[in-house]
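Reading a protein record of the kind used here takes only a little practice. The record below shows the convention in full.

——
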Amino acid sequence: MKKQLEQILSTSSLPLSKGVRKRVLTRKDNRRELAVIISEDTSAEDLRKAWAAIDRARTQLRRQQGSNMNELHNALLYGYSEMKVNGWSYNAIAMDINYDCIVNLCRAANEIPDPDAPRIESEWLSNTVHMLKALRMKDKEILSWLIPGLKEIKAGSAPWALDSGPVEGLRVRDALRQWRQEQTAERVVVKASPKSRLMPLKELEEKNKEVWQMANNLLNQSFPESLAKLDNLAEKYLKRKMEKSG
């Protein structure tokens, strides 16, 4: 079956520079995107000279509608930034991310029969890669953690303690500093929080109970103090948040 093309509305084209024009495209979800049109006789030098105008047009559009916070990269960094605002330390955020990585690998273990296969397809492994890329990790480093980690889980062990996994506090600090710098430079404009589907707590627990239990059992077996430390931190930060809001 052929994938149906998304209907997109477009403005008429407007000149940006010699040989370069722009259109603003409106998607079905009402997000607008900048389209740059280059004529056949536009030279590399013409394009170089047009770059400042292209960047201004892009920044103007970003100011008007804000960056897309529903893109995974933005949604993750927004969430980690909110955790820091709510009192989580960088090290605690890192531990929470390392736990999420283990949970995702537990899900991926059910999708991947052989971690040594030449080609691996797994939604949850892919999600974990994107999570770590948001923290500015490179592909080679990510896979050096995730593939051995997946093998450990399939062998019945937790791949790492939560305070010594792929993400450490300094990495979280650096990623959030970069996130703030991008906002200052208007490469990211936050106008609204990411959209999330509200789910009753009971439904959320039922949906994730099995994989959470699997991750917790592995951690309690391999690193018994690690999960308790994260639970204590989470309880402390939740209590602090409730005191501030109450």
The longest helix spans residues 44-65. The mean pLDDT is 89. The chain is about 60% helix and 10% strand. The CA atoms of residues 22 and 36 lie 5 Å apart.
